[in-house]
Amino acid sequence: MSGSPSLRLDLRPSRTLAALIVAAHGAAAAGAAAVLPGPAGGLLAAALLGLGLAAAWGRALLRSRSSVRVIEIGPSGVVLELAGGERFPAQVDARRYVSRLMVTLPVRRPSRRTLLVTRDMLDGALFRRLRLWAIWGKLRSVAGKQLPA
Prior knowledge:
By secondary structure, the chain is an alpha+beta fold.
């Protein structure tokens, strides 16, 4: 096989993740309003709901200029591309969480943040390759027949 293996992941927005984020913040807002009655509780509830909407907009719907839209994994490391077009190398921590539904990638450099990639953000074969890389920390050249759709 020629060349080194690389993996380009073009992320799609996840409406499911956005709904879950807003629902969790909505529950927190309802709880805050219940225990802190009056204007203070209302303001706190509104702030929590606004925070949920902002998080869903940037992290799940990928609409913020600072949202990660592309993850490139190659022999020289990981490169992130933001929705605003900026590209930069990133150092991903070895402590990752991998499940059937999502992969978390803790980025340490250039800034500390954690990327959450859900199954509906990628097609099945690419999500499987991301999961394998997240577990083993390396890409393998695999024949197409070994990656069922």
